[in-house]
Write a structure and sequence with these properties.
The protein has three helices and six strands. It is of the alpha+beta class. The protein has a single domain, classed as S-adenosylmethionine decarboxylase. The chain has a six-stranded antiparallel β-sheet, with helices on one face. A hairpin with a 2-residue loop joins strand 3 and strand 4. Helix 2 crosses helix 3. The longest helix has 14 residues. The protein is elongated, with a radius of gyration of 15 Å. The mean pLDDT is about 90.
Length: about 120
């Protein structure tokens, strides 16, 4: 049994340059993705960079977090989706993929605290 599931998501997008530069649209997208998985949003913060015009953003959840970092000049978006409890991070990734039609996506799944029942402290 694991404490949570952490998805590291590589998104290679086509013709989404304007979205990848837009902190307001990305914040809405990630918040909606978190809600779609049944997560409880605590707060969020998004920042747009001047050089390269990428965005970095974070949505803190009672169940952990979603984060994004974009490189519009490379049509690339890195997502980090970590959830525990009854929330399913794959639902959030699927929501994002459906909303922006990501042509190439790679996902690495990490089961966080997978061995927590066998941890001992000296």
């Amino acid at each position: 049994m694991a404490l949570g599931t952490h998805l590291i998501v590589e998104c290679y997008v086509d013709d989404k340059t304007e979205l990848l530069k837009d902190p307001v649209r990305l914040e809405t997208l990630l918040k909606d993705a978190a809600s779609s998985a049944g997560a409880t949003i605590l707060y969020s913060y998004f920042h747009k960079f001047d050089q390269g015009e990428g965005v970095t953003g974070f949505v803190a959840l009672a169940e952990s977090h979603l984060s994004v970092h974009t490189w519009p000049e490379f049509n690339y978006m890195a997502l980090d989706v970590f959830m525990c409890g009854k929330c399913n991070p794959q639902v959030s990734v699927d929501y994002i993929g459906k909303q922006i039609e990501i042509p190439k996506i790679e996902i690495r799944r990490i089961m966080r605290g997978a061995d927590f029942e066998n941890i001992t402290y000296d």
